[in-house]
Amino acid sequence: MKIQPDRFLKDLHKLRCFGTAGVGKGVVRPAFSQADLDARAWLCVQFKAVGLRPHVDPAGSVWGLAEGPSLLMGSHSDSQPEGGWLDGALGVIAALEVARAAQEAGGPAVSVVAFQDEEGRFGGTTASSIWSGGVSLETADGFKDFDGVTFGEARAAVAHLADGFVDPAQFTGFIEMHIEQGPWLDQAGEAIGVVSDIVGIRDLNITFTGDQNHAGTTPMHYRRDAVPGMVECISKIYTAFVPVVSDSTVWTNGHISVHPNASSIVPGEVRFSMQWRDRDPARLDTMEEIIRDTVREVSEARGLGVEISDYWALDPVAMDSRLKAALMDAAEVEAPAKWREMPSGALHDATCVSALMPVAMLFVPSIGGISHAFTEDTDEADLVTGLNVLARAVTRLSN
Q1: Average pLDDT rounded to a whole number, residues 198-223
Q2: Beta strands 171-179 and 359-364, pairing class
Q3: CA terminus-to-terminus distance, the chain
Q4: Which of 30, 199, 208, 263 has the most crowded CB, counting CB atoms within 10 A?
């Protein structure tokens, strides 16, 4: 295969044009937005141009399929509400370039996928979860974004293009190239990370319900204010986590919604998210017990109604030893002494795909460790190094 870095970078910048926004190389391309639909239509044109068969599945993922058994590569092309140009997109365009070079060379067979809604407008890794059997399409159709739009309503935009789900039996494995989204490679001056495993994740929403009332005339001892309940709950959870967690455990309260959200009204309801990640399933379960016990304790002590909803979980996943070894060997050739084996603290479609076939992942550095932000970026020399590692690994696997 003869990889063409300039062609790869040109395509990567072209994909950035769909939904470009904000400062730097920012992108706003949420799942099923017009920018997302336009980007996927462009990808299908590129797939056809390189000799792959374009395919859109019912969940909105787009595929470029090689003939016969093939190695599957790719990632996702949707973005966070305020995202960067590389998160997901890098893996799709790198796979496109390797597949194109393979087609030009007469092999090996490489297929490409851009999964839909990895970033979680409707939950996270939605399309790859559906494809891998983690959730049914019917159940996913009921998932709602924060504006109340359902996944089923959103995917109606591609219903006229959809042609059934792709049979996973035609693929020999899945490799996903991605930016690290953390600081370790950048701080160490290293070019490549070969992923050892992907952390597990748990995510849920908690709603405390009290009494909405006048903020000036309602005595403090008479109030059933939902917000102090949330504040106390979060504080108690953080304290209870201390003897349980490891140095690599993380947890976040990323979404808070107060109703009716007015300065002169005692809030009658508050809804907040709780997400936690770790490589140890037992630790994830222990943290969940702490969260649920604390929520119940605070609600009872303060006389608040409580609901826990939208629970979502994925267990940790180890990478396939054969695919990982090919990436490690390629990294040593392309970036000698400038690569490492490392876990992924971020969730990826590879987690879901692992239920169907062997998977592996390749990281390139994120400048400053920044991702899920307009300022997300990677030096283009590192992008090309990652592409070369990916191509060399594919060649090794084909032999």
Answers
A1: 96
A2: parallel
A3: 13
A4: 208
What pLDDT digit, counting tens, does each position of 79-137 carry? 999 999 999 999 999 999 999 999 999 999 999 999 999 999 998 899 999 999 999 99
Listed residue (301, 244, 302, 298) closest to 276, CA to CA: 244
Looking at residue 354, its amino acid is: S
Structural contact between residues 385 and 364, judged by C-beta atoms closer than 8 angstroms: yes
Nearest to 380 by CA among 3, 4, 5, 2: 5
CB 306 within 8 A of CB 292: no
* Closest-CA residue to 107 (of 322, 395, 357, 396): 395
Q: Give me 96's structure tokens.
A: 């496109």
pLDDT tens digits for range 271-292: 999 999 999 999 999 999 999 9
Any alpha helices (H) in 119-253, and if so which ranges? 126-132, 137-140, 151-155, 184-188, 226-241
What is the spatial distance between Cα 330 and Cα 309, in angstroms, rounded to a whole number? Answer: 44
From residue 325, how far is each of 94, 143, 191, 321, 389 by CA, in Å?
19, 38, 17, 6, 12
Q: How far is residue 6's CA from residue 4's CA, in Å, rounded to a whole number?
A: 6
Report the 10 Å Cβ neighbour count for 218: 16
Q: Which two tokens stand for residue 133?
A: 């059997």
Q: How far is the C-alpha of 333 from the C-alpha of 319, rounded, in Å? A: 21
Compute φ and ψ for 101, nearest 5 degrees.
Answer: -65, -35
| Residues in the chain, total | 399
d(CA 376, CA 85): 7
pLDDT for 352-372, tens place per residue?
A: 999 999 999 999 999 999 999
CA atoms within 13 A on the CB side of 233: 30
Q: Which residues contact 399 (CB under 8 A, 6 or more apart)?
A: none
Distance CA 258, CA 19 (A): 30
CA neighbor of 226 nearest in space, from 271, 269, 272, 265: 269
3-state secondary structure of 5: helix
- Please name the residue that has the structure tokens 């608040």: 304
